[in-house]
Amino acid sequence: MKNRTHPWGIFDYSNKFKLQMRLTFFFLFIMIVQVQANSYSQNAKVTLQLEEKSIEEVLKKIETLSEFKFLYNSKEIDFERKISVNYVKEPISRVLRNIFLDTGITFQVINKQIILKSDLNKVTSYNVEQRNKKVFQQVITGTVTDDNGMPLPGVNITVEGTTIGATTNFDGNYSIEAPSNESVLLFKFLGMKTARKTVGDQTVLNVVMKTDSQSLDEVIVTATGTKKRVEIGNAISQLQVSDDVKERPINNVSDLIQGQASGVQIYNSGGSTGMGSRIRIRGSNSASLSNEPVIYVDGVLINNQSNSISFETGGQSPSRFNDINPEDIESIEIIKGPSAATLYGSIAANGVILVTTKKGKFGKARWSAYLESGLVQDIGDYPKNYQALDAAGNPGFNFEAAEGEFTPSIINSFQPLNDPDTSPFRTGNSYGVGLSVSGGTEKINYYVSGNFGDNEGVLPVSNIRRTNFRANLGTDITDELKINITTGYTNSDLELPLNDNFSLALMSQGLSGNATRDVNNGWGEFTPEELFTIDTRQRINRYTTGLNTNWTPNDNLTFRLAGGLDFTSRWDSQFFPTGEAPAFLNYDEGAKFSNRFNEFVYTLDAVGSYEANIWKNISSRSSIGFQYLQNLTQGTLASGFQIVAGSRSIAGAAVTESSEQTVESRTVGVFVEEQVGFDEKLYITGALRADRGSAFGASFDAVIYPKVSASWLITKESFFETGDWLNSLRLRGAWGASGVQPGTNDALRFFTPIAATVDGGQNVTGVTFGSVGNANLKPERSSEIELGLDASFFTNRINLELTYFNKETDDALIFRQLPLSLGVGEGRFENLGSVKNTGVEVALDLRILETETTYFNLNFIASFIDNELVRLGDGIQPVIFGVQRHVEGYPLGGYWDEQYTFNDANGDGLIAIDEVQVGELTYLGTPFATTDISVTPELGLFRERIILQGLLNYRGGQKLYNNTASWRNGNNNTRELNDPSSSLEGQARAIASKFYGTDAGYIEDASFLRLRELSLTYNFSRELIKNIGFSNLSFTVSGQNLGLWTDYSGLDPEISSAGQNNFVTEEFLSQPPVRSWKARLNLTF
């Protein structure tokens, strides 16, 4: 039914809203006062394109292009040093930092004057005599490029231990004189990792610089615009992933994130092709609502619907998150907690993932192409089906043998899933091809790409074909007005088997089959051939577009207006052919389901910011913003049964059904933020956001989310001694709140139409309560305290990020059962609960070895998370779903069952029924890992000609319910019931489950160590390939899921048969994760 929505007059003038308006006008007043202060920001921008000019000439050029004047002591600065610069509308502060990088020169902005000072402590060895001293000089030339092969102009190059320096020109070329062949050249550029190269006997030295995602000067995207990392008081993970698809076995966006960010856990659900994953950021916050993060692509909120399918496929389902094309992604930022996500409001408590797609850069057209091919393999070791027979051929069980009632003579065992003559599994093939072009002028930049991929699964009816197109255009209408347009299109066709989590599907028929290869080849009731006649598909046409307008009327004011649409047309279809499909649910007579959905997500953002120096070295940034979000889903569902033979249409059905769905929600938010910086080393930020949404109860007013944070670069303080080992130390802390909205209809009272018969036999239409609703329903509210530090040691060769968080969710939605006497249905959601997550996150980046020809880096991330349901609500009984429960004082979704003990009293190696004793109901563990550690090694050989990297992941502290084994035990075909040589523990758990109804023995430790990725890349010599017109050419061979070490006895400790379900976590008749291999050729020209 259609949800009521609030109009634009959604905010009434309650006391809370009046307070919001007063605060808004207060911040506006601050901005107006600052505008009138007639200050000239040090962030004024200039365009400089100079080659081989002296420092003095460059400074004079800046003076002519701006209102700044330079003050300095001419004896302290080497004005004769020649440099080349190429900046297009860059802040002067950034230009100066690059010009004087590692020269000992600092600058201070006071009004419209820039004072240059000499700080000798910032130079490794400042020796004026050495500058003038003439010794044997070796001239080194070369080209500096980024890791995409594009030249980098303006890179600072110095000879370590001296003041000899140079910079690259427009084409990334440089020339420098080195005192000896033992000299070390340092290549430095803001936002890039410092490169260190020994001269040796070379006269030509080409260098590739890599992006530094840990740099405090790195630019981070926020709700109010871009900021430097040093200004932000929260831990935000920024992943530079543009090259990951070239060098890692990446199949979807989830693979890009897996193991790359502390506090972020990707839970793969199984091995079916095209299926989604659960994403958890700092634990689970809600017992009833989704715990998935929200996703923005280029500032546009997108549909991140999990379990995105409308009929029975078992437990697995696709996720709209993986519609995004990894090839088009430049970077991913992960905003982890409520304290960081405050300005994203009532949708953001579970975290925010910001995806930025690639854009063109200044320069000539750059073409990139790739061709890849791969294969996937089923590596499951499926348990055999057993049957014990006595000498007369009668079946029996171990527990009967223990009582002397059965003497086994023959133990038969067979598994059609394993036998190569009966197994339905194949080696699936995949291939992909893509082409992109990017470039730009001073006024326009562009990026255009097209990609096609075809991936087969390990079953004949498991395939996905996907086509992606993207066109991003940026233009400077004037010097003050810039517009960026982003567009993306996805078309996919997913074919699914009826398999996981279904007792009549493929896995079940193999795991419940016969213990011998009989006339049915050991299968159960249905064969693979029958099951493969079912045609299950999902077709997607998705279009995402965004318009981002930035207007900077002066150097202080910035206005941004952004809007976008994410539209998904989804067609789910399932067909059971008449006379061919398996005979369950009468579908052998023919059945067709055809469900079509149109899903719209609209985004509108407006932000105004003012930046100024309000007093000497005190800077201010004031922002005010507005956001409007709308989600609309329209569905038409049709089905037909008893279809005439030969027809695939509902029109050929004897019985038809149809229905419609319309679901709509809207949210309006306003926010203000004030940031104050002190001498570019201490930043304090405060913010407020107020939201009102159509999903809120009618009697609930707007919700307010506050935030405060601080970031202190303590190593810039004069009293702090860093020594030679510490490069930088930043302390940070934040407190803030954000929320998660109720379901679209959770607050509504609505009625459901029914057919009724009144006195006299007349048929009429009536109504009954569909939901009693809750006029006081409000969003769940998560507040978080975060404390942390960022440190760099030994010339940035060791980088550490350490974070502690304490997150509490109040007003958690809990379903309260209502008395049936009220006649209002089962119950309603109320804000009753409280959930707590605490943890520690560690990110350690080690540059262990750096020589002229070899490097070895090690990236280590770890998360330690504890989850607790603090309060369920007065009078609310534990929420039970199978062997999992929500119980106060324990983790959400914890496993509970009756423990048991056993004793083989007579020592005969067999467990009798009465030798098992069952105890009380006991908490057995959590389904989610409490410890998650990932190690990513990277080894470069022969001047990065060969690059070897991998991903090793450990997860511990979690349990998994092996319901597959329990179910098979109920079918009497497990080894524990039939084979006398099976372990006593196995026999006991089989008896406990079969006769005492407890599955505690099947809730197992699911800790594991997995080699998730391994790849080898060969980069062809640039001197060689430039002769054939290429600027970059590489070949990569990679593998995924290459090794597993675990004590878990089931198919795989990561299986989740319920797919992306919020909490249900079990292995039940599911295909385990597959192993994949891929070969890829990348070229740039």
Automatic annotation (TrEMBL):
Residues of the TonB-dependent receptor-like beta-barrel domain: 488-1042
Transcription regulation among keywords: no
Membrane topology designation: Multi-pass membrane protein
GO process annotations (BP): siderophore transmembrane transport
GO cellular component, one term: cell outer membrane
Cleaved signal peptide residues: none
Compartments reported by the entry: Cell outer membrane
Keywords linked to the UniProt accession: Cell outer membrane, Membrane, Receptor, Signal, TonB box, Transmembrane, Transmembrane beta strand, Transport
InterPro entries linked: Beta-barrel_TonB (IPR000531), Beta-barrel_TonB_sf (IPR036942), CarboxyPept-like_regulatory (IPR008969), Plug_dom (IPR012910), Plug_dom_sf (IPR037066), TonB-dep_OMP_SusC/RagA (IPR023996), TonB-dep_OMP_SusC/RagA_CS (IPR023997), TonB-dep_rcpt-like (IPR039426)
Pfam families: CarbopepD_reg_2, Plug, TonB_dep_Rec_b-barrel
Boundaries of every TonB-dependent receptor plug domain copy: 242-352
Keyword Membrane annotated: yes
Gene Ontology MF term list: siderophore uptake transmembrane transporter activity
Family classification: Belongs to the TonB-dependent receptor family.
UniProt name for this protein: TonB-dependent outer membrane receptor
Record organism: Christiangramia forsetii (strain DSM 17595 / CGMCC 1.15422 / KT0803)
